């Protein structure tokens, strides 16, 4: 038991006589390393309590456990909403316990380290149960709960009372499973918890304990007609499990208040310790931040890093998402402002009562900003009415500062995706794009065809009606078609199809409608532009950030500046630090997008029902607008350094909507050069003119 385990490096050896075989890795690292999930919870319920107590458990503590299932003996039971129910079809208590243990072993025995079994009339403090299993060794056979004596049995043997729940380790479950059939046939008992306890004792020689490895399993037996709000005993507050419970909601509220009071008291204790220790630091008391224990505000190193404040009143916001100077305060922002004002009044009254009692008359000024190092900061100028104990009132203005700190970071569960998905590139081309097609095809061939990347290309030739009439005599896209033919000759297994479209207004939505109908519903589209440089650095993020029926990806490409203005005849810098200075991320462009055909078709169907395919509406929309307004998917919009475009002056079609045309013009203007480069160019021009 005291053997010293030391790591040993196993050298890699591959037999040169055997053909190389690609190693298949597991989906997750923890699977390859043999990690298990921590805790699985089983709740035993019945026909009489399924829709009452079991539902109450589900609404109070179920979401605090990582995995919880309900087990019943009902046959074809109607499952309440939001619950996972396993029906065994036999309501005999012993049979239910036998089937439940067998089911847990078969389906979860290899995935979890601990198994917590409770009844639906048991209230378990989820956080304390989870904390308990983190302090126990998984290598021991554990049978932990409220130990009870058998009636007329051995004085040394104990079983765990089912009403207060009990904890079983994975190692114990693995040893117990081969004996379950024997226990079912040989052990007679009325109570399922006694039957299980006798089974574990007879075949494994392990008895129930209430204390193990320095950890205590505290329980509390709730008397009949007890009011949870009046329970103040230490045993009650320290209990991991309470039984029997008739009103789960009142009990949950009481324990939630106890945990909240403990959290506030712990915060006060920690703040006091910080105050006491601050005087011993080099900065002294001057280094004490407000609020105590929260990170200090972000200190900008230059004027470009200054975090601006947003001004608001109770009715309006003066920093709007669409860029307008003033908009109505509504939704989450309105609820946020109301909550902050109420919190400010509550804190003022808590500090000055009973001498003064404040009531709000008006919010004079409101400011807020998001500091990524600490959270949301607020500054409020409040017009208050202060009433003294004698009833005298006075109106005064008071400035208060508040912080809504960043709380615990949570990992949002996302569906699993792989980098093996085939990407279907879609490239719309107009006559103005002909000068850039050759470079696009060269980059596509070098970075996808030569590397055998799982990507295909479809070209979309957009003919003006005048050019479409003369296509038999002069085809404006003849040169592009010749380039495609050369690629297909060079790569015999590759076919690059093209689609010809005649239109004066190349609406992105209309073009996508045509392409969508010609591909399967599970196709992953990458809508590209002719200036896009295709490479592996972006294709893989496109695959990973696009999730069917969950998320679409609209990357913000990096746009290089005009080299004539940036370098002015000098050699372009090649170092990585100067790279980002030679361009910017073009937030005005939505030309690139990654999405699944099925998601587009679903959103497009909703759009069609809303606008009845009005051409003028479709011409004013992009694919981004379709997903934004007509899908419930996540829209992931982020800068993508792997998506780089060379400088080019885009041609903005005045036939498009005013907003799309304005965005195109802004993209061209901001893509010329940075402010410092433009200032230097103007300075040199003025110098030249003056001489």
CATH architecture of the largest domain: Alpha-Beta Complex
Radius of gyration, rounded? 34 Å
By CATH reckoning, the class of the largest domain would read Alpha Beta
Here the CATH topology of the largest domain equals Spore Coat Polysaccharide Biosynthesis Protein SpsA, Chain A
Largest sheet: 6 strands, mixed
SS-derived structural category: alpha/beta
Tally of alpha and pi helices: 22
- Main sheet strand line-up: 3-2-1-4-9-6
Summed up, the domain count is: 3
Multimer state: single chain
Gap between N and C termini: 91 Å
Average residue pLDDT: 87
Residues in helix, %: 25-40%
Unreliable stretches: 574-578
Portion in beta strands: 15-25%
Question: What general outline do the C-alpha atoms trace?
Answer: globular
| Number of distinct beta strands | 27
EC number: 2.4.1.-
Pfam family, one: CHGN
Membrane topology: Single-pass type II membrane protein
Enzyme class: transferase
């Amino acid at each position: 038991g005291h053997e010293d385990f030391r790591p040993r490096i196993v050298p890699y050896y591959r037999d040169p006589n055997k053909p190389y075989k690609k190693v298949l890795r597991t989906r997750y690292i923890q699977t390859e390393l043999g990690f298990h999930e921590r805790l699985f919870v089983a709740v035993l319920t019945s026909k009489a309590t399924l829709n009452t107590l079991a539902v109450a458990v589900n609404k109070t503590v179920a979401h605090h456990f990582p995995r919880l299932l309900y087990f019943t003996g009902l046959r074809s039971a109607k499952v309440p909403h939001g619950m996972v129910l396993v029906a065994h079809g036999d309501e005999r208590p012993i049979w239910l316990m036998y089937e439940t243990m067998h089911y847990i072993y078969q389906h979860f025995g290899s995935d979890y380290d601990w198994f917590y079994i409770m009844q639906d009339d048991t209230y378990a403090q989820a956080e304390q149960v989870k904390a308990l299993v983190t302090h126990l060794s998984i290598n021991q056979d554990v049978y932990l709960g409220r130990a009870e004596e058998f009636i007329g049995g051995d004085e040394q043997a104990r079983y765990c009372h089912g009403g207060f729940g009990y904890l079983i380790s994975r190692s114990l479950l693995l040893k117990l499973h081969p004996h379950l059939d024997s226990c079912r046939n040989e052990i007679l008992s009325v109570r399922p918890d006694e039957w299980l306890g006798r089974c574990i004792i007879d075949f494994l020689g392990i008895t129930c304990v209430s204390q193990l490895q320095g950890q205590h399993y505290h329980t509390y037996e709730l008397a009949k007609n007890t009011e949870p709000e009046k329970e103040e005993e230490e045993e009650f507050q320290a209990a991991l499990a309470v039984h029997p419970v008739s009103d789960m909601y009142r009990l949950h509220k009481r324990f939630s208040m106890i945990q909240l009071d403990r959290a506030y008291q712990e915060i006060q204790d920690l703040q006091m310790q910080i105050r006491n220790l601050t005087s011993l630091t080099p900065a002294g008391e001057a280094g004490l931040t407000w609020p105590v224990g929260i990170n200090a505000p972000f200190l900008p190193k230059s004027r470009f890093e200054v975090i601006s404040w947003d001004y608001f009143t109770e009715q309006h916001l003066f920093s709007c998402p669409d860029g307008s100077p003033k908009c109505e305060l509504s939704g989450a922002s309105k609820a946020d402002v109301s909550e902050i004002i109420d919190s400010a009044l509550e804190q003022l009254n808590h500090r000055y009562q009973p001498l003064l009692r404040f009531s709000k008359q008006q919010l004079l000024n409101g400011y807020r900003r998001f500091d990524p190092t600490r959270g949301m900061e607020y500054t409020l100028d409040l017009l208050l009415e202060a009433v003294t104990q004698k009833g005298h009132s006075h109106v005064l203005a008071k400035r208060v500062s508040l912080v809504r700190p960043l709380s615990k970071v949570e990992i949002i569960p996302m569906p699993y995706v792989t980098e093996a998905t085939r990407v279907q590139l879609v490239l719309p081309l107009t006559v103005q794009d002909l000068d850039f097609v050759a470079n696009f095809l060269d980059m596509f061939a070098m970075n996808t065809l030569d590397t055998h990347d799982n990507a295909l290309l479809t070209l979309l030739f957009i003919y003006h009606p005048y050019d479409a009439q003369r296509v038999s005599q002069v085809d404006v896209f003849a040169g592009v078609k010749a380039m495609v033919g050369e690629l297909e000759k060079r790569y015999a297994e590759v076919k690059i199809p093209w689609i010809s479209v005649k239109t004066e207004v190349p609406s992105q939505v209309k073009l996508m409608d045509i392409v969508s109908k010609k591909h399967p519903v599970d196709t992953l589209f990458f809508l590209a532009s002719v200036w896009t440089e295709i490479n592996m650095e972006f294709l893989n993020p496109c695959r990973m950030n696009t999730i069917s029926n969950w998320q679409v990806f609209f990357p913000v490409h990096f746009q290089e500046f005009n080299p004539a203005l940036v370098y002015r005849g000098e050699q372009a810098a090649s170092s990585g630090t100067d790279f980002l200075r030679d361009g910017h991320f073009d937030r005005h462009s939505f030309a690139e997008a990654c999405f699944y055909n099925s998601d587009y078709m679903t959103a497009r169907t909703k759009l069609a029902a809303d606008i009845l395919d009005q051409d003028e509406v479709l011409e004013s929309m992009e694919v981004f607008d379709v997903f934004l307004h007509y899908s419930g998917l996540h829209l992931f919009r982020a800068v993508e350094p792997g998506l780089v475009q060379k400088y080019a002056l885009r041609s903005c079609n005045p036939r498009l909507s005013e907003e799309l045309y304005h965005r195109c013009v802004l993209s061209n203007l901001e893509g010329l050069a940075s402010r410092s480069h433009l200032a230097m160019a103007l300075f040199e021009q003025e110098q030249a003119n003056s001489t």
